[in-house]
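Need a sequence for this fold. Nothing fancy.
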């Protein structure tokens, strides 16, 4: 059998190959005991080839529209996959890290991501975080005037000059997308300097004029649910402001534009839409000067790099009927699919049915709910979904879960975090699993819940 890890040409992704690798991996996961046993009712799988393909597609897309030699740093939003081996894999693919907390900085450092390919973004950076970034040469974007004032007192103490790339994050206030919580360019967003507020634009121009060490400008208007046209409009406003700053300074003060990430993901099929190539072409059409080589670029994509690579496998423990509705009770619920359970309209997931041996089920479709193990009635990952009828011992697979679902757990009911396993295929088609994160033990849960301090409150 062909080696599916060979993937396809850089810049493209094959939905058929993605689905074939997934089916093969599910079968192998059961056969090799990764999932399905009494102590392994839940596991997360990550398709290493899919991650490499996504990284190659991103790099190829921007290289295809950029000027020869234009500097482009692609970083991964660590929050989308806060696992050290994942960051190490992406670093091996040439993708840096965009961190938004001390913990995320520590993960990037543990993964070996160079400081020169790390960016710090957060609306609540402490003085300690700022000092660390400056000392290590990590680029950062100030979120507000108070943070910039704090930087004023720190940059002169950096040995050898003013350290890494320093910029200001702006909010062009272009409005929201389909998911309010994912929209960061609304009139009242907590992120960045609200550019259309009275006096804000003038303040930004003055801030750069008074600080020659400010050499970047950053904007990120949102992610899932955000139209790509709005994303491109945010990049255009960033570019136009940089041009205005440089004209006022009489020199190229702003040399790098950080255009954020946020490319939405299609959660309805294995197709990758929109593609990085489509978005790069849209940027080139919307902001022609962006790719003429005068500015270095930084991107901060997250969900779009990992989502298609991930599958959560959950054993069906019981099936039942209530009010005429079939219900499959599984081990995947709010503890791993937080957004899907609490905001199902915004975050629907595809569910695939596999039998107890990990083979795709071919039974007739039946309308059913797919429930999780959490002790509240709304713990459903799919409602009224037409699927092959699930039976006890089968596996329900939550698709497109490579981003956020593995690394953003919800500790309700003290359910253990599942193990995360990357998979690759050999030349003979054999699937090999590679531990990304061990399954959480009950002892680990007790320790996390203060087990060492049992008698403290007596």
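Here you go.
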């Amino acid at each position: 059998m062909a080696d599916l890890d060979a993937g396809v040409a850089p810049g493209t992704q094959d939905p058929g190959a993605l689905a074939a690798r997934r089916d093969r991996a599910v079968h192998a996961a059961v056969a090799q005991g990764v999932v399905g046993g009494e102590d392994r009712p839940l596991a997360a799988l990550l398709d290493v080839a899919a991650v490499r393909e996504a990284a190659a597609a991103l790099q190829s897309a921007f290289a295809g529209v950029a000027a020869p030699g234009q500097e482009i740093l692609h970083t991964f939003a660590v929050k989308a996959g806060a696992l050290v081996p994942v960051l190490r894999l992406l670093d091996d693919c040439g993708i840096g890290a965009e961190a938004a907390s001390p913990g995320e900085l520590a993960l990037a450092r543990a993964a070996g991501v160079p400081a020169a390919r790390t960016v710090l973004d957060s609306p609540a950076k402490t003085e300690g975080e700022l000092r660390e970034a400056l000392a290590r040469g990590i680029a950062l974007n100030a979120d507000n005037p108070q943070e910039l004032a704090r930087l004023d007192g720190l940059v002169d103490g950096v040995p050898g000059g003013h350290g890494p790339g320093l910029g200001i994050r702006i909010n062009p206030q272009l409005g929201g997308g389909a998911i309010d919580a994912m929209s960061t360019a609304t009139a009242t967003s907590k992120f960045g300097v609200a550019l259309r507020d009275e006096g804000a634009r003038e303040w930004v121009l003055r801030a750069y004029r008074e600080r020659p060490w400010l050499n970047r400008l950053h904007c990120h208007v949102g992610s899932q649910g955000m139209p790509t046209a709005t994303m491109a409009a945010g990049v255009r406003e960033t570019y136009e402001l940089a041009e205005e700053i440089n004209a006022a300074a009489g020199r190229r003060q702003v040399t790098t534009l950080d255009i954020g990430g946020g490319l939405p993901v299609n959660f309805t099929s294995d197709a990758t839409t929109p593609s990085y190539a489509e978005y790069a072409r849209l940027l080139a059409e919307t902001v022609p000067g962006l790719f003429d080589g005068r500015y270095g670029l930084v991107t901060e994509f997250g969900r779009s790099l990992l989502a298609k690579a991930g599958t959560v496998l959950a054993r069906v423990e019981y099936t039942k009927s209530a009010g005429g509705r079939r219900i499959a009770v599984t081990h995947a619920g709010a503890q791993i699919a937080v957004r899907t359970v609490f905001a199902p309209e915004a975050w629907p997931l595809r569910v695939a049915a596999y039998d107890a041996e990990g083979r795709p089920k071919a039974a007739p479709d039946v309308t059913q709910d797919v429930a999780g193990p959490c002790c509240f009635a709304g713990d459903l990952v799919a409602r009224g979904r037409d699927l092959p009828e699930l039976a006890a011992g089968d596996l329900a697979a939550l698709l497109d879960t490579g981003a956020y679902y593995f690394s953003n757990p919800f500790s309700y009911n003290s359910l253990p975090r599942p193990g995360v396993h990357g998979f690759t295929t050999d030349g003979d088609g054999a699937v090999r699993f590679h531990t990304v994160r061990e399954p959480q033990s009950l002892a680990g849960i007790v320790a996390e819940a203060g087990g060492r301090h049992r008698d403290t409150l007596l």
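For context: The radius of gyration is 23 Å.
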